Automatic annotation (TrEMBL):
Residues 1-25 form the signal peptide. Keywords: Signal. This is Transglutaminase-like cysteine peptidase. It comes from Bosea spartocytisi. The keyword Membrane does not apply. Transmembrane segments: none annotated. The keyword Signal applies. It holds the Pfam family Peptidase_C93.
Amino acid sequence: MRIRARLILSIVALLAHFSMPISSAAAGATQAERLPVAEPAAFARIGGQARPMIGWTLFCQAQPLECSETRLAPVAVILTPDSWAELNAINALANKQIKPIGDDDHYGISKMGIPNWWTYPDDGSGNCNDYVLLKRRLLIEAGWPKSALLMTVVVTPEGEGHLVLTVRTDRGDLILDNVREKILVWNKVGYRFVKRQSAANHNVWLSIEADELAPATSAASSRVSSR
């Protein structure tokens, strides 16, 4: 069965699950944890405009309707036990459904002369970019505001570029990552944060300030790894 069909069935199951009372939904969450506690450092400090990711630019050229909204109202989702459970369920669903594979092995991008290729993992395989796109789409389909879902470039402790999804909430900037099941506040994941999409216009990218962290290299900030 194609990944799209499996995802549709999984989404239907999720919607049925979250039509239950909040207490029942929260009890069945993939992570039976308390809501994150908001702290001053739980929200990333945003700097000036940064260069857009080439993967996003190519994605928009291939699927222009995905990038047509240029005036969004920035919001932070009010996290409840129900929405927290839903966020964890969607994160776990995407991480489980997709088989990790690098862009070059998947698409042969080196022969195409491009550093990254972002697309929906409809064939059931993908790297960090594709996980992020899928999670973003599932959350939007579940009713989450698009302006609260921001693609974010980070550098791993090994020095590799990596893409994660930032979800802006009243409890902090939460990170959905394909290499870990647990959703953490941005400053708890151990990455060096480089830039992310603007909440007002996803075609605009903004730098992320972190005084205690070393500046990201230009190579790492312009491409992401095959993780």
